[in-house]
Fold:
Amino acid sequence: MDQPKLNAEILRADPRVAQAKMLLREALADHAGHLSRRDAYAGLQENFAATLEEFAVLRGNALYYPFLGSGIGRGSLVELADGSVKYDMISGIGVHVCGHSHPQLLDILIDAALEDTVMQGNLQQNSESLEVCRQLVTLANRQGAAIDHCFLTSSGAMANENALKILFQYRVGSNRILAFDHAFAGRSLVLSQVTDRPQYRAGLPATVPVDFVPFYDPDRKEESQQAALTALRSHLARYPHAHCGFMMEMVQGEGGYRTAPREFFEVLCRELRQASVPIYFDEIQTFGRTLSPFAFQMLELDKYADIVTVGKMTQVCATLFGDGMNPKPGLLSQTFTASTSALLAARFVLTQLETGGFYGVNGRNAQVHQRFCDRFEKLQQQHPTVISGPWGVGGMVAFTALDGSSAMAKKVLFELFSAGVIAFAAGAEPTRIRFLPPLLAVTDDEIDAVCDILEQTLLRLHHEQ
Structure:
């Protein structure tokens, strides 16, 4: 006897749905296909400025950039509501991995619109949640990490909060956290303590004490390794059995795209294992952007992965953990897991990254990084005081512009924005400028065009000094 079909399956297979997708793709191609870099339309600027002022009043402060999207783009290009078209090299701080108006993603979002609900949550979830969990656990285990479970959530901060809750419950009696200096974990009440930026917790009460360990310094390799180990041992001795875990970023995103070799992490991980302190890899920004799906896999630290968080380019965020840390009922729950569109987009993004040749030393992530680096290095050879770096790995690219001061970095960022490139800052002393290009969309021609604008902008500012 034939297996009965669900009404939802029949709806998705309806030829009218396929026809609607085709018509929408054609319309999108007609209207987005001719977009190219351009300045704002004079006739729209007054209304655009008034809209930005109203938004600033409503939200309590101005937007960092005068950015309000019109709702259309093409690849790395995005159209703003003032008519300007810019190269998006920050992609919502690493979120918009598909760029803007991706035609295949359009099909996925139509599928989401056909689903019965906008949001999926703790009591009612559709099959997409299961499929995303399966994909993430399978990816995490590909090199032997002992990851059994995946709890989805709607933000990176919540994924990190859930990780800490799991760790504190697992390590009963602990009341402290270990982290690297210059760490960034999020902006919730607890995570603001882990985030090593005092201005981000000004006026907030102290919650959970954090013991910071110095990160790797490539100019002092052996000394920084010993300094980190000494600090870790000191914290463990001063507060025995008090740490729920060590939150580690393999690449310090907000800290300036600082990286470290495998040996640096492994020495610390071995010490933590001896002390029975769990190891927690925060991959909210790194996931999908390095030379492996996870940075801990790129560094072959799989056996140390007790708990892992992912987010940003995954569209829906998650906390991954082993069976031994599976929390008691009631610890993890939420009204919203994520929107249906985010879950379907997550499934699409994970599949594209896995099958599209993005990983490995010759993968697309490495190619994108190298193309930027080649241009930066060429400019540095010609004008040594204009740019230094690069830093980062894969789809995480950073450089220092001119004197590296925070004031100069901000000036460069706004000059780039005006010239048609959207970037953002990272780190301090020096403050670096970072690119998080949309990896599923960015082309070599777009990278070259961005580097042309960057070079022109930096040389002009250099001559004005």
